[in-house]
Write a structure and sequence with these properties.
Number of strands: 6
Distance between the termini: 14 Å
Largest sheet: 6 strands, antiparallel
Number of domains: 1
CATH class: Alpha Beta
Number of helices: 2
Shape: globular
Radius of gyration: 16 Å
CATH superfamily: Hotdog Thioesterase
Helix content: 10-25%
CATH topology: Thiol Ester Dehydrase, Chain A
Oligomer: single chain
Structural class: alpha+beta
Order of helices and strands: EHEEEEEH
C-alpha cells in the first residue's frame, strides 16, 4: 500500500510540557517523509521554476508518541487532479501502533509566473511507474 517508509526519531525538542509530541511537529514529520519520497522516486525539482506548494493538510491523531520513540512515516501518492496531487500518510511507532494518519494536497506551481499550473505529464508517468499502478 505504501512504497516509502521513513523512520523519524522523536527528539526531546519535539515534545511539549505534557511529554508527548506536539501536534504541530507532525507537519515536520510529514515533510521529512515527502523529501524521502521524492528521493526514493528519483524526482528533484519539477522543471526550472516549476515546483509545488502545499495547499491542504489534514491529520488525525490516534495515539501519543514521546521522546525516544522511533516513528515510521509511510507515504504514497494517491491521485492527481489537473494541477494537484494528493498524498496519504500513516505514522506508526516502533511496536506498529498507529499514531496518526494524514492526507495532503500539493499544487504544481510556477514560481516565476506566481500561479498554479497543470501537473507535468512526465511527473504523472514517473509517479505511476514508481507506485506500480496507474494514477
Amino acid at each position: 500500500m505504501f512504497k516509502v517508509h521513513c523512520p523519524v526519531d522523536v527528539r526531546f525538542r519535539d515534545c511539549d510540557a505534557m511529554g508527548h509530541v506536539n501536534n504541530a511537529v507532525y507537519l515536520t514529520y510529514l515533510e521529512i517523509a515527502r523529501f524521502a519520497y521524492w528521493k526514493a522516486a528519483d524526482i528533484g525539482r519539477l522543471e526550472g521554476d516549476i515546483s509545488y506548494i502545499m495547499a491542504r493538510v489534514e491529520i488525525d491523531f490516534r495515539a501519543s508518541a514521546k521522546t525516544g520513540d522511533v516513528l515510521v512515516v509511510a507515504i504514497a501518492i494517491r491521485g492527481f487532479g489537473k494541477s494537484s496531487f494528493s498524498m496519504e500518510y500513516e505514522i506508526r511507532d516502533q511496536s506498529g501502533r498507529l499514531v496518526a494518519t494524514a492526507k495532503s494536497v500539493q499544487v504544481a506551481y510556477d514560481y516565476a509566473a506566481d500561479k498554479s499550473v497543470p501537473v507535468p505529464d512526465f511527473l504523472r508517468a514517473k509517479i505511476s511507474e514508481f507506485e506500480g499502478r496507474s494514477l
